[in-house]
Specification:
single chain, 257 residues, alpha/beta, Rossmann fold, seven-stranded parallel sheet, 7 strands, 14% strand, NAD(P)-bd_dom_sf, SDR_fam, dihydrofolate reductase activity, 3-oxoacyl-[acyl-carrier-protein] reductase
Length: 257
């Protein structure tokens, strides 16, 4: 029997990219899923794809960047399942504009979705996680501590650094309650968001990016969304029962450089 059978996994930003990769891995492991995202059409398609005899998939279409929505979203989650075993904060934004061009509105968008939403949603759902001695997994980024040529990421890096600090501090604060808190810091992953960001670059910058991948990644390639899903499944499993406050680097060796 799969360890995750009958366990309930909440994934924000679960409609594409890394979130979808995580959802696919947990569905394969027979978990029940609640996916939260803005695009209802994508969510419905994923619900049809992943629902099977072993896994139920429920969806909530909502804008997590609007902090006023968090209480309603929290109540929707609890009404769907009072038992929460794993909460995965994957929803995020990364618009790589130069520091001097990043106005307060764009900075606030990064802070709201990448920092405040995980903070407030965790606050609302923590009582349920305490009951199950559950897991919280934050999807961070190597950009919290590592910069790359041609990528201006100050606002994004700021928020992912804050998310790492949140991970460690919360793990320290609530560990005695039996709830583990970890983060995954992926390297570059082949997602729609990455491809969209690349389209904003000039041809010269794009060529430099692909050359840089071979130069700075020991494995000479970027990752797949399911690579992050497998890491999340490990951290949420009984095999990781003594792991908390970790920033788990899943980056193809990037941070060795």
């Amino acid at each position: 029997m799969s360890y995750f059978k009958n366990k309930n996994i909440i994934i924000t930003g679960g409609s594409d990219g890394i979130g979808l990769g995580i959802a696919r891995v947990f569905a394969q492991k027979k978990a029940n899923l609640i996916l939260i995202g803005r695009n209802k059409t994508k969510l419905l398609n994923i619900q049809r794809e992943l629902t099977n005899d072993h896994s139920s998939v429920q969806i909530i279409s909502a804008d997590l960047s609007n902090l006023h929505n968090i209480p309603t979203i929290s109540q929707q989650i609890i009404s769907l399942t009072p038992q929460i075993d794993v909460l995965i904060h994957n929803a995020g934004i990364g618009q790589f504009k130069p520091f001097i061009e990043t106005d307060e509105a764009l900075l606030d968008l990064h802070l709201n979705l990448n920092v405040k939403t995980p903070y407030l949603l965790t606050q609302a759902l923590l009582p349920s996680l305490i009951k199950t001695k559950g897991n919280i997994i934050n999807i961070s980024s190597y950009f919290a501590e590592r910069m790359l040529p041609e990528r201006t990421t100050t606002a994004y890096s700021l928020t992912k650094g804050a998310l790492n600090s949140f991970t460690k501090s919360l793990a320290f604060e609530i560990g005695h309650l039996g709830v583990r808190v970890n983060a995954i810091a992926p390297g570059s992953v082949s997602t729609e968001q990455l491809n969209n960001n690349l389209q904003l670059l000039s041809t010269h910058q794009q060529n430099n990016f692909y050359k840089m991948i071979k130069d700075v990644y020991p494995l000479e390639k970027i990752g797949a969304p399911e690579d992050i899903g497998k890491a999340a499944a490990f951290l949420a499993s009984e095999d990781a029962q003594w792991i908390t406050s970790t920033i788990f680097k899943v980056d193809g060796g990037l941070t060795t450089n």
